[in-house]
Amino acid sequence: TYTLLTLIDIGLPPQHEAARHGAQLLLEVMLGETVDDKFRQRLADLDRCIVGMLLRIGVYFGIDETRLEAIVENLLAERMEDNAWNCRRQRRPKPHHSSFHTTFNVLEGLREYVEAGTGQQIEAVLQAEQAALEFMRQHKLFRSDKSDAVIHPKFTLFSFPYRWHYDVLRGLSYFARANAAKEPRLQEAMELLHNRQRKDGFWPVQNRYAGKEFFHMEKIGGPSRWNTLRAWRVLRWWTS
């Protein structure tokens, strides 16, 4: 799963035969070949983070739309009361607050679905996306909406590949991709982005998360081509 997500992030063409085969195999193993009772039960049992990833991979590589529509329907039904998502929604004790990690794993899948332009639930997805982005604005992308404290120090460290983890650069990258409204509640996150730029003009990779890697693309603390590209995309959106 992480390998396919990284290949998407670095721009592998969606027509790539081996990757398409891998995506097809992943959906078959995780959910099944057809939308039946067994498929729906597997879908209900999976964490929403994983479901969001499967949607993103499936849409990007052009996998059977019937299954993808069922995934979208499930994700729309699984929103929390605060309009975002949490992997632990079905667990006990039930969480009362959405997870930034889960929310962006889901949003990235839904955004892929919207951009494909062929889905049957695009309008409902866009409404859910706007509500989730408002949830993030209420938190200034990394702060508690109650105490204004930084929710977790790692939210302010930029990683790549980011796996299932959220950080401010991932959040800003999504706002830029969706061409979301620019407003004062995002200003502090943008200042953090500016402050992370190195003297040589690059942005660093500051953190590495667990997951199978065939090789390390960049050194921790060193200049990151990928984070620099992502940062410049954010700045282009912010200043446009």
Q: Your description of this structure?
A:
- The chain has 240 residues and is mainly alpha-helical.
- The chain folds into two domains: 1-138; 140-240, no CATH class.
- Helix content is 52%, strand content 2%.
- It has ten helices and two strands, in the order H-H-H-H-H-H-H-H-H-E-E-H.
- The protein has a two-stranded antiparallel sheet.
- The mean pLDDT is 95.
Please describe the structure with a list of short key phrases separated by commas or semicolons:
single chain, mainly alpha, 10 helices, 2 strands
Q: Outline the low-pLDDT stretches.
A: none
Question: Order of helices and strands, N to C?
Answer: HHHHHHHHHEEH
* Strand count: 2
Biggest pleated-sheet summary: 2 strands, antiparallel
Radius of gyration computed on alpha carbons: 18 Å
Average pLDDT for all residues: 95
Helix content: 40-55%
Strand content is under 5%
Number of domains: 2
List the SSEs and their pairings.
Blueprint lengths: L1 H8 L7 H14 L6 H9 L2 H13 L4 H13 L22 H17 L5 H17 L29 H10 L9 H9 L7 E2 L18 E2 H15 L1
Helix pairs in contact: 4-5, 4-6, 6-7, 8-10
Summarize the structure.
The protein is mainly alpha-helical. It contains ten helices and two strands, in the order αααααααααββα.
